[in-house]
Write a structure and sequence with these properties.
Layout lengths: L3 H13 L4 H8 L3 H9 L21 H12 L9 H11 L5 H16 L17 E13 L2 E12 L5 E6 L4 H15 L5 E4 L6 E4 L5 E3 L1 H10 L2 E4 L9 H12 L1 H5 L3 E2 L2 H18 L10 H8 L14 E6 L5 E4 L2 E4 L8 E6 L3 E6 L2 E7 L7 E2 L6 H6 L15 H10 L5 H10 L1 H4 L1 H14 L4 H12 L23 H15 L4
Parallel strand pairs: 1-4, 1-8, 4-7, 11-15
Antiparallel strand pairs: 1-2, 2-3, 5-6, 9-12, 10-11, 12-13, 13-14
Helix pairs in contact: 4-6, 5-6, 14-15, 14-17, 17-18
């Protein structure tokens, strides 16, 4: 292959020095035909050669890869396959080549696609330790409880050390946002001075001109609690929080690539696994600006610069709701029970990420695990005890009492076979608020073991379980004291016994 310097040398020998072609061929090792061809070329630029076509092990699979890549361009970014996934799918189909060949093909295809596209330029950003964190949401799909579910993943990343934290939720509502911040600050060991966000609806009520924002009052309360200053990006300027934007892409290629292949028992189990993978990634990943440091090392350097984490923000959302005649409150297409004495009243429902709290007059009257399914009803049968005391006939088909513990249901089936059994069962239920559910269950099980349970029998067992004599190690406290404590004298007992025998005329 002739280079530019070789061509210049040939031209000087021929046109300037008049060296014959035979001598030029001898000195350069090139054939005379090659020398003649290049001397006839009018241009003195760099010689151009046709591209060599090399065969590759990936060639038989090139059309399949091209179809996958074209199909991925029409999918949402979160559902696009990485080169690793494509390599694994090809191997399952019979491909025996290396991962590098697949990567080279994907890279070449994307270069050809982007050759004519206009691409933007951005300013690189730099942050000091403890200065800022960036926050963003992403939508992912995983299998939870046997079903493919959509979850919203909160991404929080420190702008300096690049430590990140991931938490999955069912929605992007306020209570989820507050809980994600609380978990992130605990994991990082402190709070940065600024938080950088896009204009999400849970934080910004209205976007004004420039940097003017009408910040949501509840979100502002959280920022005031943790003492950091919120900052919002301009419209369509995601590069202003590009660190967390890239984190979304990177975690899809790494952590979520594993998560989507696993069947999770619950969202809590998934979040425990995410926390472990985040900490593991801190140890494995190198810092992009200081490759000699891992992300975990940079986080240790940043922690002294962070503000101390205060007590966690009580991040609930409160709604006033009216209790229905059946003593239920409606929330997000589900129904939850409250004590029947609050029927037709207005109560406050405080929603947390994992449970719901019903409050009346500043006192919590009910608590339920939160469900994100629809058209479900959740009863606490103890909420209806006072009502069935007045209406014992409702006990037979009462829906809440189908949720009672199994021993209570067995006792109910036994008593309802008798006349007036519903009133007898109500007496047992009425003992639950007085003695506690655990004690009543023990008494019911003991009564069932004897074969003929009744309300009097259960209450009698409860009384014996609760009596001071039945408590081991019970000590009676009194204000009286003895100056001379009596001593046990067994010999005195024998003397009294002998005297009595003599008086009766008996001989031992």
């Amino acid at each position: 292959m002739i280079t530019v310097s070789m061509l210049a040398k040939i031209r000087r020998m021929h046109f300037r020095d008049g060296v014959p072609l035979r001598d030029i061929s001898r000195r350069t090792g090139l054939s005379r035909n090659t020398i003649r061809r290049w001397l006839r070329e009018p241009s003195t630029g760099e010689p151009k050669y046709s591209k060599r076509i090399n065969t590759s092990v990936v060639d038989p699979w090139s059309e399949q890869l091209r179809l996958w890549l074209v199909a991925d361009t029409r999918r949402p970014k979160r559902e696009r396959r990485s080169a690793t996934q494509m390599h694994e799918d090809l191997r399952a189909a019979g491909y025996d080549g290396s991962y590098d060949r697949v990567c080279a093909f994907v890279r070449s295809w994307k270069q050809e696609r982007d050759a004519g596209a206009q691409r933007g330029a951005f300013v690189p950003l730099a942050f000091e330790y403890g200065e800022a964190f960036q926050f963003d949401w992403s939508c992912e799909y995983v299998f939870i409880g046997g079903l493919r579910r959509r979850i919203e993943v909160a991404h929080m990343k420190l702008a300096a050390s690049r430590a990140f934290w991931l938490v999955g939720y069912h929605t992007q509502s306020h209570e989820m946002l507050f809980d994600a911040h609380a978990r992130g600050f605990v994991a990082f060991g402190g709070v940065p001075r600024r938080g950088i966000y896009d204009n999400m609806k849970t934080a910004v009520d209205r976007v004004g001109p420039g940097k003017q924002r009408a910040i949501n009052a509840r979100f502002h309360a959280m920022c005031s609690h943790y003492l950091f200053e919120p900052e919002f990006c301009n419209r369509a300027a995601g590069w202003e929080k590009g660190i967390v934007e890239k984190n979304v892409q990177d975690r899809r290629r790494q952590i979520w690539h594993e998560a989507i292949r696993t069947r999770w028992e619950s969202l809590d189990v998934l979040n425990v696994w995410l926390a472990e993978r985040c900490r593991q990634a801190w140890q494995e990943l190198r810092h992009p600006q200081w490759p000699e440091l891992s992300v975990a090392d940079a986080l240790e350097d940043e922690r002294p610069r962070l503000m101390q984490t205060p007590r966690l923000f009580d991040g609930y959302i409160e709604l006033p709701l009216r209790v229905s005649p059946t003593s239920l409150v409606h929330f997000q297409r589900n129904r939850y029970s409250v004590p029947t004495e609050y029927a037709h009243h207005i109560v406050s429902l405080r929603s947390y990420p994992t449970y719901l709290s019903v409050v009346a007059d500043g006192v919590e009257i009910a608590r339920h695990s939160r469900s994100f399914d629809r058209y479900q009803t959740f009863y606490d049968w103890q909420h209806y005890i006072n009502l069935v005391a007045r209406k014992p006939g409702a006990l037979r088909n009462g829906a809440p009492f189908q949720m009672m513990p199994e021993p209570m249901q067995r006792l109910q089936r036994h008593l309802l076979k008798q006349e007036g059994g519903d009133r007898v069962m109500v007496q047992v239920l009425a003992a639950t608020p007085v003695h506690g559910l655990e004690a009543v269950l023990v008494a019911v099980e003991l009564a069932l073991e004897l074969g003929r349970p009744s309300a009097e029998h259960v209450l009698n067992i409860l009384a014996r379980l609760k009596s001071p004599a039945g408590r081991p190690g019970g000590v009676v406290k009194t204000a009286l004291t003895l100056n001379i404590e009596p001593l046990a004298n067994v010999h005195r007992y024998e003397q009294l016994r002998a005297q009595r025998n003599e008086e009766d005329g008996h001989v031992e």
